[in-house]
Amino acid sequence: MTQQTPDDCIFCRIVAGELPSERVAETERSIAIRDINPAAPVHVLVVPRRHEPTVGALAASSDDLTDVFRLVQQVAEQEGVADAHRMVVNTGSGAGQTVFHAHVHVLAGARFSEEWLL
Ligand code: 5GP
Ligand code: ZN
């Protein structure tokens, strides 16, 4: 698996404010930004501030992991989709991961059963 160092990591640079993003919410440990290439009417990425390449690696810190899931819930409520949204985590390029800084996709507004396999 490709492992980027924080210096060349796009999400570390977004967290640091060096690259622009549409931030919809944030906590001390995580940020929530709109995906630049949305796959559904609501497509937000919840990104821990701490660099870990995958959600699995992030799980070593229960505080960070818990915070990410709390922020997912906050975003879902803010976006009015608390009762109908999907979380997606891609781990490894074979599963479609393209940015190797842990993140959770929050997707909503699509007809999940017809448009997606899962
Ligand atoms: P992955 O494929 O790694 O699970 O998801 C990476 C996601 O990050 C993709 O959905 C992609 O559209 C999004 N993305 C890539 N670069 C940027 C960026 O510079 N800004 C934002 N907001 N999203 C990005
Ligand atoms: Zn990073």
Name the descriptors:
118 residues, alpha+beta, HIT family, subunit A, 5-stranded antiparallel beta sheet, 4 helices, 5 strands, globular, binds guanosine-5'-monophosphate, binds zinc ion, HIT-like
Strand content: 15-25%
Count of DSSP E strands? 5
Classify the fold: give the CATH topology: HIT family, subunit A
Which sequence of strands runs across the widest sheet?
1-2-3-5-4
Please, what is the average pLDDT?
A: 92
Supply the number of helical segments: 4
Rg, alpha carbons: 14 Å
Q: Can you tell me the CATH class?
A: Alpha Beta
Structural write-up:
The chain is an alpha+beta fold. A 5-stranded antiparallel sheet has the order 1-2-3-5-4, covered by helices on one side. The relative contact order is 0.22. Bound molecules: guanosine-5'-monophosphate (5GP) and zinc ion. Guanosine-5'-monophosphate binds next to β2.
Quick summary:
By secondary structure, this protein is an alpha+beta fold.
Helix and strand layout, with pairings?
Layout: H1 10-15, E1 23-26, E2 30-34, E3 42-48, H2 55-58, H3 62-78, E4 86-88, E5 104-108, H4 112-115
